[in-house]
Specification:
Blueprint (H helix, E strand, L loop, with lengths): L2 H25 L9 H5 L4 H12 L3 H5 L1 H32 L5 H14 L3 H26 L6 H26 L6 H7 L1 H40 L8 H10 L6 H31 L4 H10 L7 H4 L2 H8 L4 E5 L6 H13 L5 E6 L10 H13 L3 H14 L7 H13 L5 E6 L6 H15 L7 E7 L3 H7 L5 E4 L4 H17 L8 H15 L3 H11 L7 H6 L5 H10 L6 H13 L4 E2 H4 L5 E2 L8 E2 L8 H8 L4 E4 L2 E4 L2 H7 L1
Parallel strand pairs: 1-4, 1-5, 2-3, 3-4
Antiparallel strand pairs: 6-10, 7-8, 9-10
Helix pairs in contact: 1-5, 1-8, 3-5, 3-6, 5-7, 5-8, 6-8, 7-10, 8-10, 9-10, 10-12, 17-19, 18-19, 20-21, 22-23, 22-24
């Protein structure tokens, strides 16, 4: 007997009992003793289950007043129930034979979770998001599971694992809801390790089955295609019974032999294309490359037209572009515009069809973009689509290592070299903000990896690296790179800065009342005092926007000399009634291990820290309706909003606050 099947037949009752006990330990609730458990067990389909759940909720007055929100929850929950029933159909035969409770306890668990909302509006929204994410994972399996006759025992075992783990997810959500800690879904997922880990495991379990499906279907499709070609050549053979079902689905109306074969061949060709696309999606999910294009779009949006042209035409840059196996180190002070110059390089190189360009922005705001692992995953992903040969090599790489967990740095490095070596056209790797990797990671992972990238010994590969000239980076790259440029010594860089200042002063309405003399004075003063830092200039221009013409000269005479002094003055200018909240918000961003949303940070506005008891309390009336806008207003210059996440506008802000 298949060992997997033996596990299902012999131990399934024990597995369900263990899952129920784990649920009871988490929630202090016995699912088998819940009032509506018997009603759930009698349900014959999706609508029956949904009706029992709704009837159980109607006891709450708040539920009736929020009926429209229940409608949204009901719609997404209905999808979850449907897939769970299909999963149970796959794994449930043995359960029924052993007397195990089976899938009904999951629906009871959903009912208990819904009951814990007590009809409260915010909780509905959180549950809607939870069920949406669970539904997204489970819907991967629905089509595959509906044809249960062709499923292996391993697939059935995986279906059972998914059901039992879903019960664990429900237990954690119920526990958090009862403790009033499930009001904001994203806060729970980002801040509660148990829930985050549970959802990630559910993701892995469903992805495992999808991966198996893609590989099995692709293999079967290729085999059937060969058999169809044999049939069309007139050879005799017996079609395997496992393939007859597919052929009957494709040609159910008994068409002629030749026409049927053509229909099968066309349909299988389409299936092959779809399966290959699904395989590539699974490979990307397994590789999990950080998305460097997000950073590139953000930097490009801040770039003034014509910025960086001088560098693209400079002898140093031209040498790097044309010299075999060359490497370029671009360095400058904080806020000197290195990222903007890198974005100009990337756009210029990618505009030439003969080039292959892969790029990466290290990012202090995003932990996934601070290590060698993220760098290699991103570069590998970008190069994998550079040619058909690269794509084939990438699929072979996944076939060899996809079932062994994530690839190691060594495997990724070797694969990157393999992909680059498969290309004959020029390959350019552009890596910005190396200094935004943490010091420990930089010393142990990033800098050693950069040495390897600058010495791939492939003539057609060129590497450009941009960073601050910090000691460890200088020691690593100064002698390693064949070309270097210090922006502090680049006179054309000063011209870029002058153009940027003039553009802002002459095109922004805030400076429309200034006479030409003051515009020229401000332009000259800012350029002279900037010391090569675009960031410093940008902050002074923000401050000068509020300045009346009669105060301009005095303000220009007293400009802060450094970024640190600029940030101190910005804090001093904040309204004293708000400064405590602003400092708490900045502290949260500084020390948070994960990106924080505007919604999460704005909770600070609703907390009263100065109570008679000394214990902070939450006052829901003090919540703001537009958290992102309010945070940007109060923390102007310190933070930016990206996809509703709040982060520091520049690494120098974080360094100053620490």
């Amino acid at each position: 007997m298949d060992t997997q099947a033996a596990v299902l037949d012999g131990d399934i009752n024990t597995l369900w009992q263990d899952a129920l006990e784990a649920y009871r330990m988490e929630t202090k609730s016995d699912l088998l003793g819940v009032d509506f458990a018997d009603d759930i067990r009698d349900c014959a389909g999706v609508e029956d289950v949904m009706n029992v759940l709704q009837e159980n909720m109607e006891d709450f007055k708040a539920f009736r007043s929020e009926y429209s929100k229940w409608g949204k929850v009901r719609a997404v929950l209905k999808r979850v129930v449907g897939v769970v029933l299909v999963l149970n159909d796959v794994a449930g035969d043995a359960a029924a034979a052993s007397g195990a409770p089976g899938v009904s306890v999951i629906f009871v668990g959903i009912g208990v979770l819904l009951t814990a909302t007590k009809g409260v509006s915010d909780r509905y929204e959180s549950l809607q998001e939870l069920f949406s994410q669970v539904s997204e994972y489970l819907l991967r399996l629905s089509t595959r599971m509906e044809f249960k006759a062709g499923l292996s025992s391993a697939a059935r075992k995986n279906a059972l694992d998914i059901l039992m783990h879903l019960l664990h997810v429900l237990a954690l959500a119920t526990k958090l809801l009862k403790k009033n800690r499930f009001m904001h879904y994203m806060q729970v997922v980002s801040g509660n390790k148990d829930m985050k880990d549970a959802l990630e495991r559910l993701d892995r379990l469903t992805a495992t089955e999808t991966r198996v499906t893609v590989m099995e279907t692709f293999s079967t499709t290729q085999q059937i295609l060969k058999e169809v070609q044999t049939m069309r050549s007139g050879s005799l053979f017996v079609i395997p019974s496992t393939h007859l079902v597919l052929i009957q689905c494709i040609s159910p109306d008994g068409q002629g032999h030749t026409e049927t074969l053509e229909r099968i061949e066309n349909s299988l060709s389409v299936m092959t294309t779809v399966q290959v696309q699904q395989l590539d999606i699974e490979i990307q999910k397994w590789l999990a490359p950080p998305d460097a294009s997000e950073n590139h779009r953000r930097v490009t949006a801040s770039r003034c037209e014509g910025t960086g042209t001088w560098m693209l035409n400079s002898p140093a840059f031209m040498e790097w572009r044309e010299r075999d196996a060359s490497s370029f180190w671009l360095h400058g002070k904080p806020g000197s515009g290195k990222s903007v110059l890198c974005s100009s390089v990337i756009d210029m190189l990618t505009s030439m069809p003969s080039n292959t360009v892969a790029y990466y922005y290290f990012d202090f705001r995003d932990e996934s973009k601070q290590h060698a692992d993220g760098l290699l995953r991103s570069l590998v992903h970008q190069l994998s689509s550079a040619s058909d040969e690269c794509l084939s090599l990438h699929r072979e790489f996944y076939s060899s290592y996809g079932k062994k967990g994530g690839p190691s740095l060594t495997l990724l490095t070797d694969h990157l070299r393999c992909l680059a070596g498969a290309l004959s056209n020029p390959v350019y790797l552009v890596l910005d903000a190396v200094d935004e990797s943490p010091h420990d990671a930089r010393r142990t992972e990033v800098l050693p990896m950069l040495r390897k990238l600058t010495s791939l010994h492939l003539d057609h590969v060129r590497v450009l690296l941009a960073s601050r000239p910090e000691g460890d980076i200088r020691k690593c790259l100064e002698d390693e790179c064949t070309v270097s440029m210090d922006l502090q010594d680049a006179e054309p860089h000063e011209r870029d800065m002058k153009s940027y200042i003039a553009l802002v002063l002459t095109s922004y309405l805030d400076f429309g009342d200034w006479p030409r003399r003051l515009v020229d004075l401000a332009c000259d003063t800012l350029q002279r005092k900037a010391n090569g830092m675009f960031r410093w200039v940008s902050l002074q221009l923000d401050s000068l926007r509020k300045c009346l013409p009669k105060h301009v000269e005095k303000t220009l005479d007293s400009l802060p000399e450094t970024l640190g002094e600029t940030y101190r003055r910005m804090l001093d200018a904040i309204d004293r009634t708000c400064i405590a909240d602003v400092l708490r918000i900045l502290a949260c961003i500084t020390y948070s291990q994960v990106p924080m949303s505007a919604y999460e940070l704005a909770e600070i506005f609703a907390i009263d820290f100065d109570t008679d008891t000394g214990v902070p309390t939450v006052n829901a009336e003090h919540r703001v309706s537009d958290p992102a806008s309010r945070l940007q207003l109060l923390c102007s210059g310190f933070v930016i909003v990206s996809e509703n996440n709040i982060s520091f506008s520049h690494l120098s802000v974080k360094n100053y606050l620490r």
